[in-house]
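Data card: per-record layout.
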Amino acid sequence: MTQASPPPDSGAPQRFPVVVVGAGPAGLTVGNILRAAAVDCLVLETETREFIEQRPRAGVIEEWAVRGLEKRGLARNLLDRAELHSACEFRFDGERYRFPYAELTGSHHFVYPQPLLVTDLVREYADVRGGQIRFGVRDVRVHDIDSDRPSVSYTCPETGEHRIVHCDFVAGCDGARGVTRAALPPEQVRIARHDYGIGWLALLAEAPPSADGVLFGCHAKGFAGQMPRSPEVTRYYLQCPPGDDPENWPHERVWAELRERLGASGVPPLTEGRLIEKRVLDMHDYVVEPMVSGRLFLAGDAAHLVAPIAAKGMNLALHDAFLLGDALVAQLTSGDDSGLGGYAQACLRRVWDYQEFSQWLSEVYHGAAAGDPFRAGTTLARLRRLFTSPAAAAAFAEQYLGTAARY
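The structure for this 407-residue chain is written out next.
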């Protein structure tokens, strides 16, 4: 929620040039960029530090994003510990088809679970660069964003006191359910939304991956996917009805469906293990335009959500953060406002490019299970083309790795 002006402060008002709402990859990256330039900022996070460092999320980072983190001194652990993936594998029509995208592009995917990246970013921001962060805050509100004196208020979890932070800019990085997106004046913003009408059962298994890369099973019973996270833990997905109850998927049913949908001639059996997470994700996308209102700048899932179909969400969050962090530094250190002025437009080019690819890939994944013989046939044609047409293979590889979106 937002209010035109903040209520009274229980203590002395605080001031920072930038307040960052949300300590995910986007917010922490923005904070680190500001601190590296000796710009003070305050990060506000509703969860505890322990929670955000353990919350299971994405794990695939595109090479351009890794280079962006490396350029800003934020990739040391990632480069030492991440797995490099150079190929993925499609399984359809009873066969397996390996897609060596690194051979086509010279680029890789880095697999580094988001909790590890968040842990690195928190440590660098708070413990190394001396950035200010408040965990466990409540009742966060954004005020006066269309004035030159915006502020953010919150309730201190330790004392229960109501605090006000005055600032020059607010970076809204608090995700799909955060308060900053709601602070945008509805008459100034458009939210474009797409619902795929399908669900994915998201699973974490205490089991090593059953192949050395990502697996995509395009099956008449529904999509299945394997996404390695570590040598001991593997992410799996199973297509299911939207809104399905995870309790409808006991251990035996999950592994039976994974075996069937990821099965192919000559492949070894899946390595099974205890399921440590089960939740249903309803596949949908949204894009907020223009991502900016006055002194409030949205980034990451606060501004756009792309379904995990193409593993693009964390990469888009980092892209926003690089642009926003650099633009804020330029404004606050040298008065150059060109980056902030062009921020939304620069972000949205990549956002819409990734949304389009996600839609295309959704048809590849889910068309065989649509119950429509025509869609099933065209889906099979698309899949075969990837392995018979060098031009189609190159185009897919560029989009899959994000190298086609050079903005």
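Known properties of this structure: The chain has a mean pLDDT of 93. The first strand starts at residue 2 and ends at 3.

See the next section for split statistics.
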